[in-house]
């Protein structure tokens, strides 16, 4: 039988799971069918962050809830897969926040180059966040049965997936602050532009701060739990582990509330979802369909133009070949005629 505290913990986890599923799905949908102004490079990373949080809500959190119902699940072979997915999503999230911080620093420090940036480098960085996350998570399966190696792996993971990204994030925001102070002294137009960039940077800094508040206790407790002695292990407060798990899972619902409060485009889309504003949603879907249709039309026109150019090139080659053949034939005729005249003269 479960105590009231355990039942309360399970109820809180279920609420977090439902909110994470709903909130992150709305972030992704708002980005897909939202206006053009919402499709910024920063929001590409935000959507990738929402995908990682959605994976937590679908694959990781339900397994932890089941574990809190029945601790025997820890003996199952799927338990290690659950921990690996949990680790992968956490690493991908902090790598996304690191990428967002670097992108914001680039936008403030080199605005012209950032303006001319295409979506390809952003998509490559997004793919790299998952690749690095998988590369850091996969060795876990090779170190489970060796306690010493597992401790080394855990320390390396803590350093590579938490300390290094944290240093990069702090340095990035220091550079953003320095550039903002320097550029504020310039023209009014530049000041308005930098204020807009700073507003986005403030929103991301809130998300980063919430991530650190929610995840830092888990990393610290996890490192302490793994490296403590046997006496420490036996006396370690298990409730502290459960509290830190609730904290880091709660981070999966933070982005929805932050963007709902600070981003007008996301806020309008969220309000339409919550109020079931069919008209606005239909308008957004129609706009999205038209943009997809334009892309398809442009692609079709480009393909058709390419085919026409190919046909024209083939026709030109054929004409050139015929012209060359005729010229060669005419030249041969002239040579034969000349040879005949020489024979007659002889």
From TrEMBL:
Region (Disordered): 299-346
Biased composition (Basic and acidic residues): 305-346
Keywords annotated in UniProt: Cell membrane, G-protein coupled receptor, Glycoprotein, Membrane, Receptor, Transducer, Transmembrane, Transmembrane helix
Protein location: Cell membrane
Name of the molecule in the record: Adenosine receptor A2a
GO molecular function term, any single one: G protein-coupled receptor activity
Main location class: membrane
Mode of membrane association: Multi-pass membrane protein
GO cellular component, one term: plasma membrane
Organism: Hydra vulgaris (Hydra)
